[in-house]
Amino acid sequence: IIFFADYLFHHDASLTPTGFIQYDNVSYVAYARQYLDTPAISLFYNNPFNESGNYTPIYFQFQTAFFALLLASGMAPGLILIPFTILCTIVCFRIIIAIYDNLVPSGRYRVAGITLFAWGGGLLTIAGSILKLVNSSVDNIFFIDPAAGWWGLNLGRSLFFSCEAFYHLLFLGTILYVLKKNWLGTFVLVLIASISHPFTGIEILSIITAWILIERFLIQNREIPAWFIISILVLLSLHLFYYLYYLPTFPDHRSVSEQYALNWRLRFFNMIPAYGPVALIALIGIWKIGRTRFLSMPQHRLFLTWFIVAFLLANHEIFMTARQPIHFTRGYIWTSLFLLAIPGIHFILDRLRKYRYGLVATVIFFLLLFSDNFSWIYANAASKVTTTSTAYISKEQQDILNALNKHADAHSLLISRDDVISYMATVYTSTYSWYSHPYTTPFAKRKKAALDLFFEKGNIDSSWNGKRLFCLIDKLSNATSGLPESALLLETANYKLVELKIP
After folding, report:
1. What tens digit of pLDDT does each residue of 187-216 get?
2. Quick one: which of 269, 264, 49, 63 has its CA closest to 150?
3. Positive or negative CA dihedral for 278, 281, 285, 287?
């Protein structure tokens, strides 16, 4: 609540919050808008970052369809994600409480344990602070926290990233149902996760598949019904078929997939401070209980399988082509280690209570594990935003988007070098943008080259023929002398919005 209140109210008076707190958030609602802008009713939608709607609808996500219903009801695009995130986070926290209560029915250290579960982390901030002190080139304490902390290597941080709260709800709900041996509930949540997100879907499917195979065929656990095993294997096969075979048969998706095949990965200097403390506590718990007894507990086998699979997925560049390995982190590795560490946490807290200054030591212990999340939230809340982005737009940008929405339709194409306007147009208008998101725009490299040729030499790309073309001209740029004749729709201090007249 503090984080979102700061986002909504702590900014320059000239800016308006859009509701999209992070760059990729815009695309979530842009996907939903495709349902409204397509004349034919379909369960699927096509990529809104194509240059037209003349593509086969091939995508579906559970939450995208829900967002589309909200848009159809008249809800403004910017009002969707924050309430959705808060609601999913509340449910997610309730699941966190239920998981802890299931694992520790005695209620031992309940408040402390649940709070650590939700908001604990590593020592990334402390390590970054030390690095900042000894290295003058390091300018902030989140230097070794990937994307300044936005990748969320622990659980609580991940929930800020809009749809991640929904994915975590499904993931942790699945774990809770496995612990309760509710096989139908487990399958339903895994199914929804599979049709909601490629990364979370394959992660939870891989974890559950590995676990049931170990339990049924190695441990000889007969409590897992055959129908559940078969259903999970079929769902895993369908997930892999859809993402690895069916979608790549379409050239526009294949282009996006290749553009997104990025080696965004964890390094040892990320992993050690992020996971080292909780991994060490897990080892303390294993030592205290004894390895044989520790592994004899079904929940520990589940969490260990979860950790191994999540860790391998987050480092898959070691044995295959990298496809954003870091996308498999999102707190999943840390959470599996924390659940393994609960006995170790209880042991540490028991020992600290016996010392003379045990209370002080306990406070320090908690502050260390809370340092990553609380310092990140404070840093984001303390800084006042003064520049435009997809999160905050100016009155001038609002006027441009309003004018574009008034004149353009789903058969229009926007030609613009302004990254914010091109991207936001996919949410606030029915028009398509020639080039916007650098990775989800199909054939981005070719389209960027065509965009530069147009503004620098007036060259018209052949694919623009037959479309209504709208062009946003930066008045400060001198690369507009060769543009074709146009009709002025709006002029602001820095821009001209025109409709091009192509012969």
Report:
1. 999 999 999 999 999 999 999 999 999 999
2. 264
3. positive
